[in-house]
Amino acid sequence: MGTPITPGPADSDLVRAARGLPVSRTPVWFMRQAGRSLPEYRTLRAGTAMLQACQDPDMVTEITLQPVRRHGVDAAILFSDIVLPLVVAGVDIEIKPGIGPVVANPVRTVADVDALPPLEPDRLDFLVTAVRQLVAELGPTPLIGFAGAPFTLATYLIEGGPSKEHARTKAFMYSEPAAWQRLLEHLAVSAAVFLRAQIGAGVSAVQLFDSWAGVLSATDYAQRVLPHSREVFDGLGDTDVPRIHFGVGTGELLSLIGDAGADMVGVDWRIPLDEAARRVGPGFSLQGNLDPAVLLADRATVDREVARVVAQGRAARGHVFNLGHGVLPDTDPGVLTHVVELVHELGRR
Ligand code: CP3
């Protein structure tokens, strides 16, 4: 009798859906599933600053596992933050509770760009340790690694913190084109270093978060941003893990986004997935796109909207169910568990 072959994370429905291969049922995970809505997260994090927690391998491991244990999602996402590579490189950034990343010395001049320290891979040992521990604990459940895309990181560096209009960022992009290019190249190299460390340690997929790309016109995105997101994916060489590319409000950019080199495109709730599938074109799977606010509504609404997203997702070559953006802090974790069960039931193939 032969030894039964245990399927590993590379054969998981998440990886298969991202590649457009047949799945047993629609896989589901939630952006920002770690933290935020979970009481066990708040207990564990109490007294530890966010960026401290991200650099403690045991805390990263435990927080990453919490939503997998509780909800039975089809993937874990590494507990970290998009600003972490900058912090590790030595940029003075703090994550203020309820606000987000705040940069002590925002980038305002060419000299500021040139003064940014490079990310040395040997500073990422804590991350490699965390990923290895997680891969061992997770067994067949895939671990998704991630990085912030150059544009979205540039918005934090230039604005000095979270912003709505990203007006300073755009002004810098238009008036300092050479410095803009150097800044985005720097951020692309650092994102690729951050992702390669995670891939080398065993993550099963990677997601590039370009959360704020939707504030750009298609022309500016194509000329001044997309080439640098492509540099991140190109910087991963021939590593064989599926690549996910996500942004909010990217409906008008979807026909371009695929050019950066992902296997799967994440979309928000503003356009239905069948329309998104048409816009991205045939070579891509889709991830999304339930409005996170729906999870605060009544159960009948939740059920109806989940069913709609699962059905419309069938128009794509592969579909991973997710929210259109991160879990809102007020979300009842019980609703998330319910959504996982419902997607698994409705998404059977
Ligand atoms: O599921 C997960 O939570 C995985 C870990 C994760 C975090 N940040 C932890 C976090 C991931 C994938 C991110 C990505 C991230 N960080 C993005 C891209 C995704 C998106 O939401 O568009 C962005 C833009 C950031 C920057 C950032 N970090 C903001 C805007 C904030 C403040 C708002 C908030 O969510 O509270 C953070 C802080 C942050 N990142 C927290 C966590 C758990 C909260 C920190 C705390 O608990 O004090």
Quick take:
The protein has helices at 13-19, 39-45, 50-53, 57-71, 84-89, 110-114, 125-138, 150-159, 167-175, 177-201, 218-234, 254-257, 273-280, 299-313, 333-346; strands at residues 76-77, 93-96, 100-103, 143-148, 205-209, 243-246, 264-266, 285-290, 319-323. The chain is an alpha/beta fold and 349 residues long.
- What is the third-level CATH name, the topology? TIM Barrel
| H and E string | HHHHEHEEHHEHHHEHEHEHEHEH
Number of domains: 1
- Order of strands, main sheet, comes to 1-4-5-6-7-8-9
CATH class, named Alpha Beta
**Can you name the CATH architecture?**
Alpha-Beta Barrel
Element layout with pairings:
Elements: H1 13-19, H2 39-45, H3 50-53, H4 57-71, E1 76-77, H5 84-89, E2 93-96, E3 100-103, H6 110-114, H7 125-138, E4 143-148, H8 150-159, H9 167-175, H10 177-201, E5 205-209, H11 218-234, E6 243-246, H12 254-257, E7 264-266, H13 273-280, E8 285-290, H14 299-313, E9 319-323, H15 333-346
Parallel strand pairs: 1-4, 4-5, 5-6, 6-7, 7-8, 8-9
Antiparallel strand pairs: 2-3
The protein binds coproporphyrinogen III (CP3).
Coproporphyrinogen III binds next to strand 3.
